[in-house]
UniProtKB/TrEMBL annotation:
BP-aspect Gene Ontology terms: carbohydrate catabolic process
GO MF term list: beta-glucosidase activity
Protein's name according to its UniProt entry: 6-phospho-beta-glucosidase
Keyword terms, alphabetized: Glycosidase, Hydrolase
Source species taxonomy: Bacteria, Bacillati, Bacillota, Negativicutes, Veillonellales
Keyword Glycoprotein: no
């Protein structure tokens, strides 16, 4: 059973749906030069083929969309603040008032319907200027720029936002240094020392945000956020078991520092053996120790396997590596579907870190077909495949709750169709609300309720009981 105060909702990111990239004083972000998504080359500036520049026009249509979220019964809406709307370059001392006003209005609209905002401070949208002129998070100066940004939004929205996340999928910097860490150096040329120094800077910035937030409003709940992708051993061979342990350690390092306040022994061994030398200052160690997060949030889409034989790695995906699990089906984009892995990772994180958990991303990217429902007299999508996916994962959350895990809530990813971060496509749709926009930019931007819309509405209204219908 789900607790009465369980936070049901949906999740989006500013850079994937707002559009209006050059309105309201906004500066460019790293997303504005990634027209092909994660794996494509960056461009010198905005180009007409970059769908994220227009998104789904949430910037102008947010009232219509939040009304739909209210119809769904959302208790919480996870979104992000576009850093470059508040500080267009990222290094200014004074914020852009027009950007602040936009989020004032957005949060007010949420509260109008009793929806609690859950806000990601930095969600793959670092100001481009900080990447090109400072080298992104490899530069210690970004801690100060982030702190100024955090202090500004915490002060401005201290009575409008209770739940905050410091960085989206912070561990994804391992696979995508530019999108996650605004590091312009090509991945193959980036040294391990520079990468982990950038990671350290982000971890320090996260702890500073916790400290500042609790000073401004002690009622703030400030969490970290990781890309959760548990790794199983490919076989029972002990060498494969150790390979899975080490792959899990790569991602759990970020939780160790943010939830426990220290670098674990396995990380120190890794640094030592790889010749990685970090500049970690005494005051930073103290800051990390004294300002751990209030809760751990996570995205969950896939699990992977690990093998001691590194040549076996073949898992499809954009932000993860590993070996394909022969027992699991895959989505159209090659992401393996493993609902039980969600229960497994929730148990693992609780056992290790003893912090409340929040599933803030989970969903199925699929190709949807808009059809006309003669019986209802409206356009819709018959997405039973999405309903099945969500149902199985929510049942896994319910199992974790029965295991005694304190799960605060669940927000489906891309509750309304948006532009994919990994592929920059509209055709990779996650939403329970269809948006008439296509990969070539065509479309009316009209919104339509999918079959999954009504299913999720019933699940929320019944507080999960409808999952067993």
């Amino acid at each position: 059973m789900f607790p009465e105060n369980f936070l049901w909702g949906g999740a989006v990111a500013a850079n994937q749906l707002e559009g209006a990239y050059d309105e309201g004083g906004k500066g460019l972000s790293i997303q504005d030069v990634l027209p092909q998504g994660l794996k494509g080359p960056r461009t010198a500036g905005p180009t007409p083929d970059n769908l994220k520049l227009k998104g789904i026009d949430f910037y102008h249509r947010y009232k219509e969309d939040i009304r739909l979220f209210a119809e769904l019964g959302f208790k919480v809406f996870r979104t992000s603040i576009a850093w470059s709307r508040i500080f267009p370059r990222g290094d200014e001392k004074e914020p852009n008032e027009a950007g602040l006003v936009f989020y004032d209005d957005l949060f007010d609209e949420c509260h109008k319907y009793g929806i609690e905002p859950l806000v990601t401070i930095s969600h793959y949208e670092t100001p481009l200027y900080l990447a090109d002129h400072y080298g992104g998070w490899t530069n210690r100066k970004l801690i100060g720029f982030y702190e100024n940004y955090v202090r500004t939004i915490f002060t401005r929205y201290q009575h409008k936002v209770k739940y905050w996340l410091t960085f989206n999928e912070i561990n994804s910097i391992l696979g995508s240094p530019f999108m996650s860490g605004a590091i312009p150096t090509p991945k193959e040329e980036l040294s391990a020392s520079d990468l982990y120094q950038a990671i350290h800077h982000e971890l320090v910035a996260s702890a500073r945000a916790v400290k500042i937030g609790h000073e401004i409003n002690p009622a703030f709940q400030i969490g970290c956020m990781v890309l959760a992708m548990p790794s199983y051993p490919l076989t029972p061979q002990p060498t494969d078991v150790i390979a899975a342990m080490e792959l899990n350690h790569q991602n759990e390092l970020f939780l160790e520092v943010q939830a426990r306040g220290r670098y674990p022994g396995y990380a120190q061994r890794y640094f030592r053996e790889k010749g990685i030398h970090l500049d970690i200052r005494p005051d930073e160690r103290e800051l990390l120790q004294e300002n751990t997060v209030d809760f751990i949030s996570l995205s969950y889409y896939v699990s992977t396997c690990a093998a001691a034989d590194s040549t076996a790695a073949d898992a499809a995906g954009d932000l993860f590596t590993g070996v394909t699990n022969p027992y699991l089906p895959s989505s159209a984009w090659g992401w393996q579907i493993d609902p039980q892995g969600l229960r497994f990772v929730l148990n693992t994180f609780w056992d290790k870190f003893q912090k409340p958990l929040f599933v803030v991303e989970n969903g199925l990217g699929a190709k949807d077909e808009l059809v006309f429902d003669d019986e209802k007299g409206q356009w819709t999508v018959e997405d039973d495949y999405r309903i099945d996916y969500l149902q199985q994962h929510l049942l896994a959350v319910e199992e974790a709750l029965a295991d005694g895990i304190p799960v605060l809530g669940y927000t489906i990813w891309g509750c309304i169709d948006l532009v994919s971060a990994s592929t920059a496509q509209m055709s990779k749709r996650y939403g329970v609300i269809y948006v008439d926009r296509h990969d070539d930019g065509r479309g009316s931007l009209a919104r339509y309720r999918k079959k999954s819309f009504y299913w999720y509405q019933k699940v929320i209204a019944s507080n999960g009981v409808a999952l067993h219908d």
